[in-house]
Amino acid sequence: MGQMAKNEQEFEQELELFRTECESAAQFFYGYLAIHEVAKRRKSVFRLLNENPLFWNTVSGALQTAAVITIGRVFDQRSPHNLDKVVHLAQDNGTMFSKSALGKRRQAGSPERPQWLDEYLQDVYEPTTGDFQRLRAQIKTYRKIYEANYRELRHKVFAHREASDQAEIDRLVGKTNISEFERLFVFLLSTYKSLWDLFMNGRKPTHRQLRCSVNRTGRLRVPRTSTPGVHQRMIRDTERVLVRAARPSKRMEATRAGSRSRAAHS
Question: Which pTM was predicted?
Answer without folding.
Answer: 0.87
